[in-house]
Design goal:
The complex is a heterodimer of chains A (389) and B (67). By secondary structure, chain A is α+β, with helices and mostly antiparallel strands. Chain A has helices at 18-26, 46-54, 89-97, 103-107, 110-125, 133-138, 140-150, 157-167, 174-197, 203-209, 214-228, 230-245, 247-255, 260-271, 303-306, 341-358; strands at 29-35, 38-43, 58-59, 130-132, 279-282, 286-288, 291-293, 298-301, 363-364, 386-388. Chain A has a single domain (18-388), classed as Cytochrome p450, CATH 1.10.630. Chain A contains 16 helices and 10 strands. In chain A, helix 5 runs antiparallel to helix 7, helix 12 crosses helix 13 (247-255) and helix 14 crosses helix 16. The longest helix of chain A has 24 residues, at 174-197. The N and C termini of chain A lie far apart (45 Å). Chain B has a single domain, classed as Alpha-Beta Plaits. Chain B is built from 2 helices and 4 strands. In chain B, the strands form 2 sheets. In chain B, strands 1-4 form a two-stranded antiparallel ribbon. A two-stranded antiparallel sheet of chain B has the order 2-3. In chain B, a hairpin with a 5-residue loop joins strand 2 (27-29) and strand 3 (35-37). The longest helix of chain B is centred in the last third of the chain and has 13 residues, at 45-57. Chain B starts with a strand and ends with a strand. Classes of the chains: A alpha+beta (389), B alpha+beta (67). The A-B interface holds A 54, 94-95, 98-104, 326-327, 331-335, 337-338, 341-342 and B 12, 14-18, 20-22, 29, 31-33, 53, 56-57, 59-61.
């Protein structure tokens, strides 16, 4: 079978598109039809994707109209949005903020994240026997974790949680979503303005102290939302779906909860939800995997397929909680690798710990074939997940 | 006999902390989030394996192992 076009739609929640797996086997660096008569490179081997993402000649500058992620995807791209800029500007801003996300700093957030998850579960379980898990658990947990980072005061939590949910809901009408985005931008601007006048104990205050201007602080605050909310929510939903669909896997974690961090790592590898994180624009002629890529070409590093590379992950389509492979690219690779990855890991670990401990009878209400997945979004995930206990 | 030396390049480090997960005895992050090598000479085959893992998982390829 000849693969002609880049196909990012997943039809099986447990698999990258079959076409991409075929590319990995037959033509790991392929120049394919993409859109509007434009072609793009699809890179599917783990080593090649890592090489490409490590090479700054493949640009992340989404303000360039030729960049494959130009327009869309980053609503209100902003000065502090390090996801969409190149070195040296990228390095300067990232180095100012990366001390907020060290292993040590994030591990200090554990008690607060435990509280956030416990509160979400309390509300979900309260007097009921079933729930829609995305709305009641997957979305509130990362929203409150980000509220914690940004120093959103308690009285604004409901506002923040409500509007971030609307923001991350691909199902609602675009006007309503647009309004939620505008409200959040205004809110973050107000938060930054308040911190300009009086500092607090939060990431925005510390960024201002470190030399960020207000515009940059707003951009960063908004980026934390874009990058850390819906993505983490999707992984929470997909992880719980998998455990409820695969009782053998759930049983392993029940018997030995110390396997949970390894399980989270494996689920991250398995789902690799960011469909467009590896999009770059070649700014020079570069050879990758024996193929000549030219300046101006669009390049897709397909991390979800690369994370099933049998040369790196033996038996790649098996979920193995004891695999111990941290060299996956669920958070990308290179200088743009996810800033908040250690926080995402912590949230996922704590959610699984508490769900497994507190709701032993949890089950899916629908078969996988009846579940609505985010097949066309920039991130793979689940729209609604009905559960009962 | 294990003979290797861990070298970390702080100029390219992006503070992802993956080395700390790979080997907390050999790596740490300073107050700026940058890599700090605590133990540059792996003294056992296990420590050498962990150092290789740190090289493998570092997203900015800032860690090398000199033979």
């Amino acid at each position: 079978m000849t693969v002609n076009a880049i196909q990012t739609r997943r039809v099986d929640p447990y698999s990258p598109p079959t076409e991409h797996l075929e590319l990995q086997r037959d033509e790991p660096v392929a120049f394919l039809d993409w859109r509007e008569g434009r072609k793009a490179w699809a890179i599917t081997k783990h080593a090649d994707v890592r090489t490409m993402l490590s090479d700054v000649r493949f640009s992340s500058d989404r303000s360039n109209p030729d960049h494959p992620a130009h327009g869309g995807y980053v609503p209100g791209a902003h000065k502090g949005a390090i996801i969409a800029i190149d070195p040296p500007e990228h390095s300067a801003i990232r180095s100012r903020v990366m001390n907020e996300f060290t292993v040590k700093k994030i591990s200090l957030m554990r008690p607060r994240i435990e509280e956030i998850v416990a509160e979400a579960l309390d509300a979900m379980l309260d007097g009921k026997s079933e729930a829609e898990l995305v709305e009641e658990l997957s979305l509130p947990v990362p929203a409150m974790a980000i509220a914690e980072l940004l120093g959103v005061p308690y009285e604004d939590h409901d506002f923040f949680q409500h509007n971030t949910s609307l923001f991350s809901d691909a199902h609602i009408d675009p006007k309503q979503r647009g309004e939620a985005i505008a409200k959040l931008r205004d809110y973050i601007s107000e938060l930054v303005n308040a911190r300009v006048k009086e500092r607090g104990n939060d990431i925005i205050s510390r960024q201002l102290d470190a030399g960020a201007d207000a515009e940059e602080a707003v951009g960063l605050g908004f980026l934390l939302l874009i990058a850390g909310h819906e993505t983490t929510a999707n992984m929470i939903s997909l992880s719980i779906m998998t455990l409820l669909d695969r009782p053998d896997l759930l049983q392993q974690l029940r018997e030995d909860p110390s396997l949970i961090p390894g399980a989270v790592e494996e689920l991250l590898r398995y789902f690799t939800i960011a469909e467009v994180g590896g999009l770059r624009l070649a700014t020079a002629d570069v050879e990758i995997g024996g193929k000549q890529i030219y300046a101006g070409d669009a390049v897709f590093g397909l991390a979800n397929t690369a994370n099933r590379d049998p040369d790196v992950f033996p038996d790649p389509h098996t979920i193995d909680f004891k695999r111990g492979a941290r060299n996956h690219m669920a958070f990308g690779f290179g200088p743009h690798q996810c800033l908040g990855q250690n926080l995402a890991r912590l949230e996922l670990v704590i959610v699984l710990e508490q769900v497994i401990r507190r709701i032993p009878t949890l089950r899916l209400l629908d078969p996988l074939s009846a579940i609505s997945f985010k097949e066309y979004g920039p991130n793979y995930g689940i729209n609604e997940l009905r559960v009962a206990w | 006999m294990v003979s290797a030396r861990i070298v970390a390049k702080r100029e390219t480090c992006i503070g992802a902390g993956q080395c700390v997960f790979a080997d907390p005895d050999a790596f740490d992050q300073d107050d700026n989030g940058l890599v700090v090598v605590l133990q540059a000479d792996p003294t056992s085959p296990d420590a050498l394996a962990r150092a290789k893992e740190a090289v493998n998982v570092c997203p900015s390829r800032s860690i090398t192992l000199l033979a």
